[in-house]
Structures are given as structure tokens and as C-alpha cells.
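User: Predict the full complex structure for these chains.
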Amino acid sequence: MLETKIILEDKEIPKKWYNVLPELTDLKTPLMPPLHPVEHTPMDPSLLEPLFAKKLIEQETNMKDEYIDIPEEVLKVYSLWRPTPMFRAAKLERALGTPARIYYKYEGVSPPGSHKPNTSVPQAYYNKVEGVTRITTETGAGQWGSALAFACQYFDLQCEVYMVRCSYDLKPYRRIMMNTWGAQCIASPSTNTKIGNKILKDNPEHSGTLGIAISEAVELAMQNDNTKYCLGSVLNHVMLHQTVIGLEAKKQFAKVDETPDILIGCCGGGSNFAGFVLPYVKDKKNGSKIRIIAVEPTACPTLTKGEYRYDWGDTGHYAPMMMMYTLGSEFTPPPVHAGGLRYHGESPIISQLRKEELIEARAYHQLEVFEAAMLFARTEGIICAPETSHAVKATIDEALKAKEEGKEKVIAFNLSGHGHFDLASYLAFQNNELTDYTVSKADIEKTLADLPDIQL
Amino acid sequence: MLETKIILEDKEIPKKWYNVLPELTDLKTPLMPPLHPVEHTPMDPSLLEPLFAKKLIEQETNMKDEYIDIPEEVLKVYSLWRPTPMFRAAKLERALGTPARIYYKYEGVSPPGSHKPNTSVPQAYYNKVEGVTRITTETGAGQWGSALAFACQYFDLQCEVYMVRCSYDLKPYRRIMMNTWGAQCIASPSTNTKIGNKILKDNPEHSGTLGIAISEAVELAMQNDNTKYCLGSVLNHVMLHQTVIGLEAKKQFAKVDETPDILIGCCGGGSNFAGFVLPYVKDKKNGSKIRIIAVEPTACPTLTKGEYRYDWGDTGHYAPMMMMYTLGSEFTPPPVHAGGLRYHGESPIISQLRKEELIEARAYHQLEVFEAAMLFARTEGIICAPETSHAVKATIDEALKAKEEGKEKVIAFNLSGHGHFDLASYLAFQNNELTDYTVSKADIEKTLADLPDIQL
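Assistant: Here is the predicted structure of the two-chain assembly.
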């Protein structure tokens, strides 16, 4: 009767993260090094020390340890919401009439409501241990900012979140959440930084961009010894921390004696997708027939239409250059509601897996994604974040394909976050106020043409 | 390390609800019968059949079975979020420097975010089994409406929620949630009913009251054979369904070998409080020293300043009269943010326990309640609903008292719901825009004086 939910006990929370970097060094093209943002030459990791805790830089570049211990203090905070449940979506299966068995791992049970605290907690912890007293970061819609605020309150660190002004004004709820957890949330551009002041001097009404917000957070970390910067996606150490999701999922599948045929996750910077699928990469390399699908919006089709090349991580070009799929760091995606998927680039790890064809990628339109989310809410009862809903759409499509083929496939997706703060987007969909956006190859030619051609 | 969280396995979800009614019949004053709203004489339960499913009426009046089976289909839906976790609030304890051990049962993990689906799911289920196709109800801020919408989508029932117009306009999020789950949410007063039309004729701008919304939902259920009405609190069968909370809590305390000294819950109509504490009433009667505390706002001090007497359940006087603590059914409480605690009356079961002094009651001001909620968010990481925050405040006070007395008490409260849809209230508090309200004995004298004096 109760096999719709597969739970783990507290003692089954993984005690180690899975580090895919040693695995990747065995691939045809080993992971390429980050480059200095100005000199375009491989960067010594120590140059990152003004920005990041030493332990995080060590994890960022660790090519030898397949497993890395999760500190006891981090496990303690994880246990507030981990292990997360895995569900069989039996009612969705019946609605689709599919012979496929659909499972989802539910990360929305964390206090900030997404997978983000899987990394904000260890990032805050390592900074605390190294004597840092203040953390800066940027946030778009506020998912990452609220997850970092949550982690910083836990370790009694000051937290300053630079939030893109248009989101700050239009989406107040996650901002209030950050304040409630004791963080300072500042509309960006702000008067706290040189770059902010410069931009406001030119345009006092500037509505902000993620690129500017990053620059503000980075500037403050560079200038203050007690202050470091944290990033919520893209980097290797972020992917590492998120593997706790996939490691738990593996245990859960084992409990019900299932082997997934298809793994699905939505993909912006790549962190929830990586966290879910990286522990399966070795199986795939060793001949497993498992299919791994990254899903993105047609409005920001990094993996499906971008190029694999060196590009900066940010619009302002302060961040290192990374080898990745990119639409060009000056690319501005259309305003789809899945704000967390509006990133021009892609995690270098995920990019390389795509290049090596160990994972697939596909893109969906906004309307079909919301339609899938509505069906999911009306069958399984959970209202997903618009980002997550991309994974729901791909899952439904694969389940319908299994029906056509008459095959009993096992399909699993990562439900990376709930949509409690996205109900205005659901309303816009229900009122037929949403539009589809497609970015064509031609649209991104210009931003790609602006990039320097780098040969190492 | 991980003892901050006490979890149960799926197979430990209680298979029966605990029915306190046989227990109450042993008390000094057995539970008094409901009275006909017009004739003021004891009402035959069959008169409720146009409104409620037969099985629910049977549960409402079952004075003999101490335990009642939970249907398999209900357990299946419960397992989406049950068993709910119980946490040790270790960081709050440290912040208070108290020798007390504080625990909380977390009901916010359900898809609608509160304890309400513990009863909306069985109510929808029994109606479905009896051939009902449409359910009507009323809702204030939307907690109950969204929980019923969730349950109805699960059992493929039409759901019509009459939502007080001012909330409908000012608090759109839970309304969008209801729509997403396929329910129709209608601003009340509406043109769908006689009573709605009558009120709108007099005042087309009427902002609505819970009393009017109840009358609309009831009118529609009375007129249509395929339609029944559901209520989210107050009634005996609602309290019964909620006991799943306290039954789980008992198992969880047993796992860590703890015996609670004090149980605390916030109290409006009484459902989350009853659910948490009713399984302990027998222990209390049998000599246990456990203290059980109901917490309410000073703005609606039913148990602390109301009178124990017969009154109608609704403002429009369509509902039966019940023997309960009441401020008078025409009483309108000041606009505190804890909308779920703004009810003039109190569940007859809880009222009787109060009368018999098996439970205590206390009232708090709005500002001190939000202050407690802020401390809780900054230590334990969970942002509570304003209703729940009343229980947090009482818990903190009891923990500080234990500190003064140097006693190692075990204090537990029911965290009945998260505050994701109440962040505007948190913002108002942070911006010093909230006010305290006190209702004095004199304020309620008038509404109490309007009640008929009933002697059975």
C-alpha cells in the first residue's frame, strides 16, 4: 500500500559526497582549466583565495579523491530536511496510461524550498571554520539568496545578498525570507560598491542584471579580509555538494529493487541536474544503458544551441573563463518565468558530459512546461517551481513514448523545488498571459562572435 | 549526532484515529448535544444528512469506539507527507540558555503546507465513496480552502470554495493554489446563491465575512443532491481525523525515551491543538502531571475571556448551536494576521476540556508573537505561520520559566503550518507596521448579551 513513498532513515544520509572529477580525467578530453579573466591563461587556484574559502578551492580542483567526507556539522543541518523522500508518481502514471514507472526525488522539503541548501550549508560552514565573518553573494529571483541566508543564520555569519533590482521590487517574498533569516538583502546596483555607484551615476533607475550583482558581491569580498563570496551553481565544488541527492536516490532505488532507465533534471547552471545524475556517470561509462537528459528552456538553449568554448562566467567579465557550452556571456535571455534557468553558460562538468555524449539535452517552450506542471499538480498534488517543471515535461514525454512503444521503463526526475513563491506565474499561465520564446542560432551568433577565440 | 530529528517509517503511520468522545462521556459533564439553529432543541443527527456524508455524521456522534479505522485509500494519500517529522529545537534551546528540552512536530510538510489535509482527505474520501460529486466550503485566508482543493483533486471531486472577498482580493496566492489544484474559488458574497445576491443587492461592494461564506457554501449543498459541504475545524469528526498528529508524536517520544511535561498548540477552531493533544487526555485524567496549553490571540480570546454556553457556529445562524466557549457569534475580531485564529467560538470538545480544567489557556499579543517567530526562524530555520507562532511564543515562555526554576522540562509544540504565504505579515512586522489589539470583557459583553439563554 505505502510503496508510493520510498524513505531513508537519518542514518542513511550519505556521509561522503561523490567527486566526479577523477572520473572525468579518464574521458577523451579531461576537464579544461579555468582561465584568468584578463590574461586568458590557466589560472593558479590560489588566485581564488581572496574570494573563496581554501577548503572549497581544494574541492574545486580535487582530481584524485572519488569520495569526500561531509563534515559532521553539515550532516547535522542536512538532517533538518534530509534524507529527502522519493515518490512513485502512480497517479500521474494512471493519468497518462503509461506502462512506465515514474519516480521523483523531492528536494522541495528543505526550509528554503529547493536543493540549494545542499551547497549553501557546506559553503557557509567551511567559511565559518576558516574565520570568515561575512559572506556576499548575488541572487536573481532569490532561490540562492534565501538558501544562503538560511545557511548563514545557522552558522552565525553575516550575509549580504545583492538582488537584481527588478526582482527586488517585483518579487518581495524571497527577500522577506532572507531578512527573516537575518540576512541583508540589497537592491543591485547599489551605493555600497564602486561598480554600483558608477552604474547608478550613469543611470539612477538601472533595473540591474545578474552580471552587475555578481560584480558587486565580488568587489566587496575582494576588498575585505573577513569577507568571502559564495556561488550557488556552475562551479565544481557546488556540483560536488549536490551529489548527496543522487547518492540518496541510488539507495532508494535499491530499496524497491528498481534500476532507472532514464534520469531527468532541469538545467540552468547545472547544480540540481548534476546532483541527481553525477553518481550515475560511472555506470554509464561502464556500459550501463541508462539515458540521462538535461532539460532547458527554448528561451535559453545553452546545451542545445550554444557552443562549447571558453567564456566568462559573468557578464561583467570579472569571473574566470571556463570551457563550457555558452550562448555568449553578453546574451540576455527573454523573460521566461523559470528565472533559475536563464544563465548564458553551463557548469563545465555538465558541459563536458554533454560534449562526450554521456548525457542528452533538450529544450521546451514555456507554455507546454506550465501545462505539464498543471497536470502534475492535479495528479501528484505538488506545485513545482517553473524551473523544475521543465523536468516534469520531459518525464511526461518519455512516459508517453514508453506507452507508444509498450515498454515498462523506469523514469526518474529530480523535483528540485516547490513553486510556493511562483504562484503569480501559475496565475499568468491560467489567465493565458504567457508567451513562448524561441532563441534561434541567429539570435546568439552576435554574442558568440564577441567572444575571443582562445587556443591553449 | 542526528538525534535532532525523530522520524517514523511509513509503516508506523497510525492505522486508526483516536476518538476522545467515549472518554468525554466519562467526565463530570458529558459532551452536550448540538441544538437546532432555530428551534433550540437537541438535533437528530440525521438532520445533518443533506450537508455531510453519512460516515462523517456517524463519526461526529460516535460515543463508543475509542479507535476508528483509517481507510486504506486515506492512508495512501497521508503517506505523501506522513509520518511528519518531530524535531528537537536544540539551537533554540541554546539561544534561550534553557535546561528544558524543546520538541516540535512539523505539520508544514504537507503539500498545502499545514495540518488541514489530515481531515480534508478523509472528508473528500467519504463523500466520494457515498457518490457525492461536488463539495462546497468556505475559507478565510485560504488554508482550509487549499487543503480541501488538494483533497478533492486527489479523489476527482468538483470543489467550490467561497472565499471572503477581502482575502480573495488581498491574498491571491492560496487562491491560485486552489485553482491550480482544479478547484473553483469564488469571491464571497457571490451571485451564485440567494444569500449572496441578497447581500450584493444591498451593498455591491460588500467585502464579505466568514459567516456569509459559510452560508453560501451551505445553501448550495442544501439545494443539490450531489453536493455536500465540508468544514475544516470545530466539529468532532475533524478533531478525530487530526489525532493522527498526536498518535505519531507519542510514538516519536517513545523512540527517544522522552515523556513530555508540557504540550502546546495554537487554538482557533481547535483542530491542530486537538489533533496534537487529544491522545494525551486519558493520561491526564488518569493522573499524569502533563500540562496542556492552548494559545490564542488577545484579539480573539475565546478560551480566556469567552463564556461557556450555547451559541451558533456561524454568524448567519444557519449552523447548529453548540455548547462551547464563545465571544458571541456576532463578534468581529480585530484584523490580526493570524487569520486562522479569528473564530468567535471553539470546538465543543476543546471547550469541555477547558471547562473541566484538563487543559489551560492563555492569550498573547500580536507583536510578541511575531518576535517569537523571528527568533524561531533565526535559530531553527523554519518560518512559521502567524497562527503557529502563538504556540512558539508560549513554548519560549515555558522554556524561560524552566530556566528560572532550573528544571529540565520536556516541552513540545505542534508546528501546524509554514508561513510561506504569510511573508507580507513578516514584512509588516519588520517594518514596525503591526499593532497590538486587546479585546476586553466589556468589548464582548454586547455580543454575548445578544445570545438567547438556553436551558435544556
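The two ends of chain B are 59 Å apart (CA to CA).
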